[in-house]
Each structure stands twice: as structure tokens, then as C-alpha cells.
Q: What sequence folds into this?
């Protein structure tokens, strides 16, 4: 809170790390921040794994009460995370709910793949010739979000009508709610991809899921970058109204993400609030580094001899 100390300055100067140039000190502090962030993630992971399996590096097979076991062999369970459901959508163990969400995931992934290519293709291959509507050439339609203000009303009517026709021809969600179709089965069999062994089909479906997930992340990133900079691959420097500029040169702004504040803690631009949060981040990071080592060291180096308390050995 005060003005006399920098964030993280607890008054103790560790030997071997207090000297050096300003650049060396800055690098050490950046390393401390990065290691602290990693340790905060690590110790929370250890807590979860310990609580669920009985050990900080326990085998997933030990968590016998997990409702996720109903789905851990489904398509989309891929390395390195395995079955990943941080929000807990599948904790009810309902096969019906899982099927509906899988269908929705596939549909969103397919749309996102098309949308991502829709952003990229006009930039690489150019646009159609001719007219989109009266006095509106295809080449005059801007790429990305700016096109929303240019496409005429009847153009949107055609787009929504086409989407409705696709939904109707596919059974209006039969793949999500019904029993006759698998998730994602829209009734269309793409050439070159319908044959093959069961293993090949399973691999193709897994690839589609993975690519769809990547495309969902990609298109949302394009929307944000387009909205903030004017282009899906616009320069961050074009976002001149960003309150984050007050902190983009601070310690901890590191590759590959740069200044990363997805929750928007710093959007008020307050240097006082930033200093308080940086101090808290450093303190939590230091505690997490010690806690992580506290988990690991007894397993590797053993424990102290003697008594910790009456009738309680270390």
C-alpha cells in the first residue's frame, strides 16, 4: 500500500542475488515472477491430485469415485490433458447430457473452422468478382467484423435461411437429442472420408474434434483482435484506447502472451491497484514455490529424524 517500498520488497536481501547491473536485477525479478506463477499452478494441481488420489503424484486409477470415468474413453480424450472438464459439466454422469454437449461441440467446431477459413481465404486468394447486391461489389465488402455493417438486410435473410435449411435437412438436432444418430451425424457423407477401418474413422473423428477446438479458440481470438485493432491480424499498436498500455512494460510481461489480463483487473488503469496486486502475486508465488518444494523434498530427500511432538515422529 505504501510508497516507500517496491512490490515484493520484504526488507530481506538474499545473498548472491542483490548485486549486479539493473538489467540483471530486472531479469532475476522477471524469473521470480515466472517461477512463482508456475508454482501457483503446480501447487493447486498437487492439492487436487492429492485430494482425489491420495498422493500429489497419485495414479488417476486411484480416484475410483470419479463420475468422469463414464466418459474417459470417449473421442476427444487426447494427450496431454486427457479427459479435461474443469467446469464439471459431466459430473452428473449423464450419457444423454454428454451426447448433447458432444453434438454441440462438433457443430460449433465445424462452424468455427469455416469461419476461420472465411477470415483467412479472402486475404490470401482474393474475393469473388461481380455484385453481391445492387451497387455493392464483392470486392468492396471488407473482411471481418466490418462486413456486418455492409451486407444488406436481404443478404442476412439469405444467410439465416440457408442455415435453417441445413438444420432442417439434418433432422433438427436429431444427432443431439435422438437415439438414431451419433453426435455430429448430419446425414452428409463427405467423399474420401467415409471409407476405411473403424480405427481410421475413429482417428478422423478425433482429428475433427481437435481441429474444431483449435478453430473455436482461433475465431474468438480473431474477433477480439479485429474488434480492437481493426483487423484479424492487426497490430496491437493500433489499439490506442487500451488501458493496459499503462502496464505493458512492467515486469512479468513475457513471451509468448505479452501482457495478459483476461479477467480485466487492470482495465481501470490504476497504478495503486496494480502495485497492490503485484505485491500479492509475488507473495503468493513465493509461498507456492516453498509449498511445491515442501511436497517434493520429503519424497526425494527423506524426512527429519526425531519427534515433531509427543508420540508424533517426523
A:
Amino acid at each position: 500500500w505504501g510508497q516507500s517500498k517496491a512490490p515484493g520488497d520484504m526488507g530481506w536481501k538474499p545473498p548472491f542475488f542483490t548485486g549486479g547491473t539493473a538489467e540483471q536485477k530486472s531479469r532475476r525479478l522477471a524469473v521470480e515472477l515466472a517461477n512463482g506463477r508456475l508454482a501457483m499452478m503446480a501447487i493447486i494441481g498437487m492439492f487436487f491430485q492429492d485430494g482425489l488420489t491420495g498422493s500429489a503424484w497419485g495414479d488417476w486409477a486411484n480416484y475410483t469415485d470419479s463420475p468422469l470415468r463414464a466418459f474417459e474413453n470417449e473421442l476427444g480424450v487426447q494427450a496431454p490433458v486427457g479427459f479435461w472438464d474443469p467446469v464439471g459439466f459431466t459430473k452428473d454422469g449423464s450419457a444423454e447430457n454428454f451426447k448433447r454437449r458432444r453434438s454441440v461441440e462438433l457443430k460449433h467446431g465445424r462452424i468455427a473452422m469455416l469461419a476461420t477459413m472465411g477470415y483467412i481465404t479472402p486475404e490470401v486468394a482474393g474475393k469473388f468478382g461481380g455484385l453481391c447486391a445492387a451497387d455493392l461489389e464483392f470486392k468492396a465488402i471488407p473482411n471481418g467484423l466490418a462486413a456486418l455493417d455492409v451486407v444488406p438486410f436481404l443478404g442476412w435473410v439469405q444467410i439465416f435461411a440457408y442455415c435453417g435449411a441445413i438444420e432442417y435437412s439434418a433432422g433438427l438436432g436429431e444427432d443431439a437429442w435422438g437415439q438414431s444418430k451419433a453426435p455430429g451425424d448430419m446425414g452428409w457423407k463427405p467423399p474420401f472420408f467415409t471409407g476405411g477401418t473403424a480405427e481410421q474413422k475413429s482417428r478422423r473423428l478425433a482429428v475433427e474434434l481437435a481441429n474444431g477446438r483449435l478453430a473455436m479458440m482461433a475465431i474468438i481470438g480473431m474477433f477480439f483482435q479485429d474488434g480492437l485493432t481493426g483487423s484479424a491480424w492487426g497490430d496491437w499498436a493500433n489499439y490506442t484506447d487500451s488501458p493496459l498500455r499503462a502496464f505493458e512494460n512492467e515486469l512479468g510481461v513475457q513471451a509468448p502472451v505479452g501482457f495478459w489480463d483476461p479477467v480485466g483487473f487492470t482495465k481501470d488503469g490504476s497504478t495503486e491497484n496494480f502495485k497492490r496486486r503485484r505485491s500479492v502475486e509475488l507473495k503468493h508465488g513465493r509461498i507456492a514455490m516453498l509449498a511445491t518444494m515442501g511436497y517434493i523434498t520429503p519424497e526425494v530427500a527423506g524426512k527429519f529424524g526425531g519427534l515433531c511432538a509427543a508420540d508424533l515422529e517426523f
